[in-house]
Amino acid sequence: MTIAWPLFTPWSALLGGLLIGLATALFVLGNGRVAGIAGIVASPLRAVLGGTGLAPERTRLLFLAGLLLAPWLWRLFAPLPAVTVDVGGLGLVAAGLLVGVGVRMGNGCTSGHGVCGLSRLSLRSLVNVLAFMGTGMATVFALRHLIG
Amino acid sequence: MMNGAFAFFSGLLFGLGLIGSGMTNPAKVKGFLDVAGAWDPSLALVMAGAIAVGAFAFAAAKRRTTSWSGERIELPSSTLIDRRLVIGGMLFGAGWGIAGFCPGPALVAMGGGLGAAWIFGVAMLAGMLVHDRWLAPR
Questions:
Q1: Spatial distance between the Cα atoms of A140 and A126, rounded to a whole number of angstroms
Q2: What are the residues whose beta carbons fall under 8 Å from the beta carbon of A123, sequence distance 6 or more?
Q3: Sequence-ordered alpha helix ranges (H) in chain A
Q4: Nearest C-alpha of chain A: how many angstroms from B116?
């Protein structure tokens, strides 16, 4: 294992992480809920398709609105950081389908199981995190070092 | 009313944290997952920073019954570790490794107007529907 020092951004990573932690704190202490983004997206989606109405989804929709508007607020003060996507359309579709199925089946993602679950010292979340971290690393290894 | 304000600012803060930490850039996420290549440990520090604050928040939440907005605090109660938890995590990890997007950063990048994030995001919503219709336990 060799650390890519030119790519490593410890201070912005830590500072951004603290902001994410504050957001999670605000959601759980303010609203009494876990800030798990997979669930926050899936719940209103089900309500729309099930025809049950969006009234009970109000807080989740407002959280999503904040998430979607964050880049707009950022752009008022600085340009958005550069982004590199190294997969094509087909790869993006396959990845999106896998993520969508996976986070529903495992009941959480990097925020719900990762940030919130590990903060709660949940063993269930730790198992899920190890599963997605391990498979994520194995997938990148296969794509970059076996096939690529 | 207050709960809506908390939710909105929480989402906004979460998004700013993802942008500031570099996690809306899939290349940076894949740089973390590429332990055999030139490894970028940044994502580990993002998690560490978030959990350092989150641990205090959840410890405080466990001692309270109502939130600031007056709603009951409801934390996940399940401790079940089963095949669905592990296989779900593995499927998610495979998709995460292919694209470098997970749900939060994908949504923020969609908000920023990134075309690739929209392709990923629409497929992700479709995947959620596929699960809920055909793969959910009955």
A1: 21
A2: B79, B81
A3: 10-31, 37-50, 58-77, 89-105, 118-119, 123-141
A4: 7
- Residue contact B85–A106, C-beta within 8 A: yes
Would you tell me which residues 50-89 of chain B have a C-beta closer than 8 angstroms to some C-beta of chain A? 50-58, 60-62, 64, 66-69, 71-76, 78-81, 84-89
Do the domain assignments include residue A9? no
- Going from N- to C-terminal start, the domains of chain B cover 2-135
**Residue A83 belongs to some domain of the structure:** no
pLDDT for A136-147, tens place per residue?
A: 999 999 999 998
Contacts of A68 in chain B (CB under 8 A): 11, 15, 107-108, 110-111
Based on the structure, what is the number of domains in chain A? 1
pTM of model > 0.90: yes
Residue B3 confidence class, pLDDT cut points 50, 70, 90: confident
Residue A33: inside a domain:
yes
**Residue pLDDT, tens place only, A43-84:** 999 999 888 889 999 999 999 999 999 999 999 999 999 999
Per CB-CB distance under 8 Å, the chain B contacts of A24 are 10, 14, 50, 53-54, 57
Distance (Å, rounded) from C-alpha B36 to C-alpha B122? 31
Contact criterion met (CB < 8 Å) for B8 and A128: no
| Interface probe, candidates A45, A72, A85, chain B, greatest B C-beta count within 10 A | A85
* Test mutation, A19, A58, A137, chain B, max B CBs within 10 A: A19
Q: Which chain A residue has the Cα nearest residue B96?
A: A136
Residue A10 lies in a domain: no
User: What local confidence, expressed as pLDDT, does residue A39 receive?
Assistant: 96
